Amino acid sequence: MTEGKLIPDVLLKATYTLDDLVDRITRGGGCGLTAETLRHAARLLMDEAEDCLLEGAAVSLPLGRLTPSVTGTWQDDGRHDPAVRAQNGATVRFVMSASLRRALADPQLEVAGRGARHRLMVYTVHDTATGTDNECLTPGRPVIVTGEMLLMNGSLDARGLYLHDAMTGEVMAISARRI
User: Residues 6 or more apart from 42 whose CB is under 8 A from it?
Assistant: First the structure.
């Protein structure tokens, strides 16, 4: 019954760890806390949330509510028997917050490979010195970037096109006069 219809699928752009999120927040120094301090605080927060869940308490966070739950049949008699315990389990259920539900209420669907009109897309990076596309950049020489929604001005760290040093991963600064 799906012939001729598009089947939605989620293509993950990335998977972020807690450390990755801390790095994103502290990049550029706009946070006011060092990455080490924020990482320590975030780990304490996650450890405390885990302890609360293990104690049987729900944890409400800005993203949603985590609630401990059990599966199987739990009885007083035999609950310490390994065979009975193997039939039971504990899980954590997640319910999205109202703000996250609203943000996801109107999904922006796109056909994979056709690009999106609402987010940055880089198609090619052409090195004028070597004539190559999407391979390397020659320091000090012009490049031609083609794509959609390319923001090349402004001062927000979370926006724009950034070049990273292949060896160090460090963001390379591009001065306004070179754009």
Answer: 18, 21, 22
**pLDDT tier for residue 8 given thresholds of 50, 70 and 90:** low
Check: CB of residue 132 under 8 Å from CB of residue 144: no
List helix spans (H) across the chain.
18-26, 35-54, 82-85, 98-103
Rounded CA-CA distance 137/125 in Å is 8
Predicted confidence (pLDDT) per residue in 93-126, tens digit = 999 999 888 887 766 555 555 544 555 667 778 8
Per-residue b or e along 23-57, where b marks 16 or more CB atoms closer than 10 Å to that residue's CB = eebbeeeeeeeeeeebbeeeeeeeeeeeeebeeee
Q: Which amino acid is at 174?
A: I
Other Cβ atoms less than 10 A from the Cβ of 68: the count is 16
Domains in the chain: ranges and CATH: 18-103 (4.10.520.10), 121-178 (no CATH)
Neighbours of 86 (CB within 10 A): 9
Strand partners, 124: 146
